[in-house]
Specification:
It contains 7 helices and 17 strands. α6 crosses α7. It is globular, with a radius of gyration of 19 Å. The chain is of the alpha+beta class. The strands form 2 sheets. Strands 2-1-6-5-3-4-17 form a 7-stranded antiparallel β-sheet, with helices on both faces. A 6-stranded mixed beta barrel has the order 7-8-9-10-14-15. β8 and β9 form a beta hairpin. The protein has 2 domains: 115 residues, D-amino Acid Aminotransferase, Chain A, domain 1, CATH 3.30.470; 155 residues, D-amino Acid Aminotransferase, Chain A, domain 2, CATH 3.20.10.10.
Length: 285
């Protein structure tokens, strides 16, 4: 019998973790989110064979915005998660899993769902050659929240991305780049790092990268880069929990800098990879 690519559990208010049978096999976490009740979600990956997670409290705090503040300090939940994460790695037959926690706000408010898929290795050329990004017309109604509704709203645009485009970028009304659809965005000009400070979801990886930049003495301006300013950028990159620091070499038709990953992007990427295992906390089962 073939193990399904996606495994789903349900955590109820009486501290039980139950498997959720899917009506049909699904291949991606976004498909699971479309099938489950609407609400808030957060996504992260594991380390050390499901034993470690980077910024778990920050991920749980996102869900706590659904009036579930007890999630962050819930020792029983953390213990069950620790057990489930290791079990999920074994079930999907992968050393690490990419996990999506979502909280039901529509049908049985307070029910927490846990879905996992194998972590897929990122092709090395993504980091060595960089990626192309494209601007999008999509808007988040509440950018500070990760709502499953947005996954459904963005499905058509994600499926129709031009060939070679790695990620779509969300803009404000003036054409400034706020963030990626599943990432945070940064521009580099004359050694200074620029990234939006408001109107975005402040990612966990973003928090780590900005702390690294501060420790390295890299100037930081919490201000978005506009599409009209792309020609003045020396570098650009995006960050997310499953991909780390990904250099961007083109946005729409504009080449960024030399058209190759820049030194600051590469430096922050290496520093992040070195730091992530030390910073990822052990989740005891």
């Amino acid at each position: 019998m073939t193990t399904p690519a996606i495994i789903v559990y349900k955590y109820t208010r009486d501290d039980r973790l139950e498997p959720v049978p899917l009506a049909q096999p699904v291949a991606r976490l976004d498909e699971v989110s479309a099938w489950l009740p609407g609400g808030l979600y957060t996504t992260f990956r594991t380390y050390d064979h499901g034993r470690r997670v980077l910024g778990l409290d920050s991920h749980l705090a996102r869900l706590a915005q659904a009036d579930l503040a007890d999630l962050v300090g819930n020792a029983r939940l953390r213990s069950l998660l620790g057990l489930a994460l290791q079990k999920l790695c074994d079930q999907v037959g992968a050393p690490e899993v990419r996990v999506r926690l979502s909280v039901d706000q529509a049908e049985q408010p307070g029910t927490l769902y846990l879905a996992a898929e194998p972590v897929q290795p990122i092709p090395p050329e993504v980091y060595s050659e960089g990626v192309c990004l494209a601007s999008s017309r999509l808007k988040r109604e509440h950018p500070e929240l990760k709502q499953t509704d947005f996954i459904l709203q963005s499905k058509t645009e994600r499926q129709s991305m031009p060939p070679g485009v790695y990620e779509l970028l969300l803009l404000d009304e003036g054409g400034a780049i706020l963030e990626g659809m599943t990432s945070n965005f940064y521009g580099v000009r004359q050694g200074t790092l620029f990234t939006a400070g408001t109107g975005i979801l402040a990612g966990v990886t973003r928090q780590v990268v900005l702390k690294i930049a501060q420790a390295e003495g890299i100037p930081l301006v919490l201000q978005p880069v506009s599409l009209a300013e792309l020609d003045s950028l020396d570098e650009a990159f995006i960050t997310s929990s499953s991909r780390g620091v990904v250099p961007a070499v083109q946005i729409d038709a504009a080449r960024i800098g030399s058209g190759r990953p820049g030194p600051l992007s590469r430096r922050l990427g290496l520093l992040y990879e070195r730091a992530v295992l030390d910073l990822a906390e052990r989740i005891e089962a």
